[in-house]
Amino acid sequence: VQTCALPISWSEVFEVIIDSTAPVITLIAAEDRGRIFSPNGDGNKDTFLIGQSGSTENLWQAEIVNSLGTSVRSFQWINSSPVDIDWDGRSDNGEALPDGVYRYRISSVDAAGNHARGEVANIIVNTEITPVSVAISSSYFSPNGDGSLDTLTLTPSVPHTSGISDWDLVVSDSR
To answer: pTM here?
Structure first.
């Protein structure tokens, strides 16, 4: 019988941190119809809100990419959690981006290699002017109940309804 004695070694005591919890991200974006916005400065749907919350991490990185997958706008949060973004349709250098379909992506990897990713797809930038006109049946009318020219017919024309969520036709007096 042969015996073999293996040497026993000891190291200093050191702390090991076990991190099995991945970063957390929650995204809140408009439903599909509400993902169309028109950043043209007219005061109507000029920005697109991406609501988000997440865990505090060393680094969160986010970007908006065009339909070709090219990053056009980037964001990052260092030693914090991500906050809401109200995107104005502009690139990192402040230029207005062309009409098209965009996607928002966010991710984080913690020191232990745990990761989280989130995405909002089908964000549509549409700055196309929508022509609207109204035709009237007569240039004057007399709403006095005598049966002659008491009514006026207003006929709206909206040839391009794509991207319109609502509209109003209002008749008012001079005040």
So the answer is: 0.72
Higher-confidence position of 71 and 165? 71
Confidence of residue 1 (pLDDT cuts 50, 70, 90): low
pLDDT tens digits for range 84-95: 999 999 999 999
**How many Å apart are CA 26 and CA 42, to the nearest integer?**
31
Q: Tell me what the pLDDT averaged over the chain comes to.
A: 88
> In the block, which residue shows the tokens 């913690």?
110
Nearest CA-CA partner of 115 in 172, 61, 166: 61
The structure tokens listed for 62 are 């986010």
Count CA atoms closer than 13 A to 151's CA, side-chain side: 4
Characterize the bridge pairing of strands 115-125 and 36-37.
parallel
